[in-house]
C-alpha cells in the first residue's frame, strides 16, 4: 500500500488535494491539525494534514462489493471488514475531525497568547525601568525597585525621591540591598512625618461642637454616625446631631435612621440662624455633631453658603473628611479649596478602597493638618479608629515581598 501525506490550510482544501491526486476511492488512514510556519512564534497558521492511500487491491475489493450489493445509504456505516473509501470516511468522521481541529487550534492559540502576553509584560517592565531610570538619575540602582514600589503605592513622586534620599543618608551603601533593613528605616521615618491629633475628647466648654465638611461621596454621614455611636454607647456621653444636608433626602433619612438606632436626637436645619438655634437647644449635651452637605470645590456659591453656616456657630473643631480612594490630583484641588475654611483636623475614609496607601501621606503633607481618624468599611460603630502613625507607615512602605522582582541585577 502506497501512502501519501497531503497538507493544506483547511480540511476542505486537503480533501480536494487527495481527491485530485488519488481519486474519489482513496482510503484515508489518518488526519491531524496543528499550527506551523512563522518566525519565533509569530505568523503561524493552521495546517490540516491527511494521510491517504490508493491501494489497488482494496479499491478492487471495494469495486467488486459494490457490484454485488445494493448501494448503501449515504450515512450508512460500512460493512465489517470492508475498506473505507474517502467519501464514506468523510461522511462518517468529518464532524469529529472539525471539532478536534477547532479544539486543538483553541488550545494552541491560548497557550501562545499567554506566552506572548508574559513576554510583553517583561518587555514593558524593562522599558518602564529603563525610562524611569533615565529620568531619575538621582535614584541609585540598588534602590530603584523600592522607588517604583512607592510610586505604585500612590506615594507622590517628590515624596518617593525624598524617602530614597533618606535611605541613602541614613544607611551605608552596603545595606541598600537589604530590603528588611531598608523598610525598617523607612517605616520609622514615614511614621515620624504623620502627625495625629488623637481621638476627640471632652475638654473645655460644653457642648463641644464639631463640624464635618468635605466633598460629596466621601462618607461624612456614616463617619458621624460611627463617632456618635462611640461617644454615646462606648464612652457614655450625651450627643446631639444636626444636619444641614437638605439637598439629599437620602442623607437625612440615613442619619435619622442612625440617630434612632443609637437613641440620640437629630435636628434638620435650613439656614445658618436655624443652625445656631439648634446648637443652643443642645446646650445640655456633651457633643454636638454637625453634618454638612457635600460641596464640590468648584461650586463657589455652595462653598460660600457653607462658610455662612460655619460662621454662625464657630465650631470647636472642624474636620475635613477626605476619601482615601481619591486620586492625588483631585485631592490637591480639594485641599486647596477647603483650606479657605478653618480646618483643625483631617479624617481619611474608605481606607479599604484606596488604590494605594501613599495617598495618606500625600494628603497630610499638602493639608498640613493633623490626622484624627481613619475609617475602613461601613459598620457602625466599628470600622473607625484614631490615626496610628506606625500602622499607617507600614501600609505606605511596601513590604519586600510586594516589591517588583528584579529583572536585571
Question: How would you describe this protein?
Answer:
With 409 residues, the chain is of the alpha/beta class. It has 2 domains: 3-113, no CATH class; 208-387, P-loop containing nucleotide triphosphate hydrolases (Rossmann fold). The protein is 48% helix and 16% strand. The protein has 13 helices and 11 strands. The strands form 2 sheets. The chain has an 8-stranded mixed beta sheet with strand order 6-5-7-4-8-9-10-11, sandwiched between helices. A 3-stranded antiparallel beta sheet has the order 1-3-2. Strand 5, helix 8 and strand 6 (266-268) form a beta-alpha-beta unit. Helix 4 packs antiparallel against helix 5 and helix 7 runs parallel beside helix 8 (249-262). It starts with a strand and ends in a 13-residue tail after the last helix.
Please render the helix and strand layout as text.
Blueprint: E1 3-8, H1 11-22, E2 27-36, E3 45-53, H2 56-68, H3 86-135, H4 144-152, H5 157-170, H6 179-193, E4 208-213, H7 220-234, E5 239-243, H8 249-262, E6 266-268, H9 272-281, E7 287-291, H10 300-313, E8 317-323, H11 328-338, E9 345-349, H12 358-367, E10 370-375, E11 384-386, H13 389-396
Amino acid at each position: 500500500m502506497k501512502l501519501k501525506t497531503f497538507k493544506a490550510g483547511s480540511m476542505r482544501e486537503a480533501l480536494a488535494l487527495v481527491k485530485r491526486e488519488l481519486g474519489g476511492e482513496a482510503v484515508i488512514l489518518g488526519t491531524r491539525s496543528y499550527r506551523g510556519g512563522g518566525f519565533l512564534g509569530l505568523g503561524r497558521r493552521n495546517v490540516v494534514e491527511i494521510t491517504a492511500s490508493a491501494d489497488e487491491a482494496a479499491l478492487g475489493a471495494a469495486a467488486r462489493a459494490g457490484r454485488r450489493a445494493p448501494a448503501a445509504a449515504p450515512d450508512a456505516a460500512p460493512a465489517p471488514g470492508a475498506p473505507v473509501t474517502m467519501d464514506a470516511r468523510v461522511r462518517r468522521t468529518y464532524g469529529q475531525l472539525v471539532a478536534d481541529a477547532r479544539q486543538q487550534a483553541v488550545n494552541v492559540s491560548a497557550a501562545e497568547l499567554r506566552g506572548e502576553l508574559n513576554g510583553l509584560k517583561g518587555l514593558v517592565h524593562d522599558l518602564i525601568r529603563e525610562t524611569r531610570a533615565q529620568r531619575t538619575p538621582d535614584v541609585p540602582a540598588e534602590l530603584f525597585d523600592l522607588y517604583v514600589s512607592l510610586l505604585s503605592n500612590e506615594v507622590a513622586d517628590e515624596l518617593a525621591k525624598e524617602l530614597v534620599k533618606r535611605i541613602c543618608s541614613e544607611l551605608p551603601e552596603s545595606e541598600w540591598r537589604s530590603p528588611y533593613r531598608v523598610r525598617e528605616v523607612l517605616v520609622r521615618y514615614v511614621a515620624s512625618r504623620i502627625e495625629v491629633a488623637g481621638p476627640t475628647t471632652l475638654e473645655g466648654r460644653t457642648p463641644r461642637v464639631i463640624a464635618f465638611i468635605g466633598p460629596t461621596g466621601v462618607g461624612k454621614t456614616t463617619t458621624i454616625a460611627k463617632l456618635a455611636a462611640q461617644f454615646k454607647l462606648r464612652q457614655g456621653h450625651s450627643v446631639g446631631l444636626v444636619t444641614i444636608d437638605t439637598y439629599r433626602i437620602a442623607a437625612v433619612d440615613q442619619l435619622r435612621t442612625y440617630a434612632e438606632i443609637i437613641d440620640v436626637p437629630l435636628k434638620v436645619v435650613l439656614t445658618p440662624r436655624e443652625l445656631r438655634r439648634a446648637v443652643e437647644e443642645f446646650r445640655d449635651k456633651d457633643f454636638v455633631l454637625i453634618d454638612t452637605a457635600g460641596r464640590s470645590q468648584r461650586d463657589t456659591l455652595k462653598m460660600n453658603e457653607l462658610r455662612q453656616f460655619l460662621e454662625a456657630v464657630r465650631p470647636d473643631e472642624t474636620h475635613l473628611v477626605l476619601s482615601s480612594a481619591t486620586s492625588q490630583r483631585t485631592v490637591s484641588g480639594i485641599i486647596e479649596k477647603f483650606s479657605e475654611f478653618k480646618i483643625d483636623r483631617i479624617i481619611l475614609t474608605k481606607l479599604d478602597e484606596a488604590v494605594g496607601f501613599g495617598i495618606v501621606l500625600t494628603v497630610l503633607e499638602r493639608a498640613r493638618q493633623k490626622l484624627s481618624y481613619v475609617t475602613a468599611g461601613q459598620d457602625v460603630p466599628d470600622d473607625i479608629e484614631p490615626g496610628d502613625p506606625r500602622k499607617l507607615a507600614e501600609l505606605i512602605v511596601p513590604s519586600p515581598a510586594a516589591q517588583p522582582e528584579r529583572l536585571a541585577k
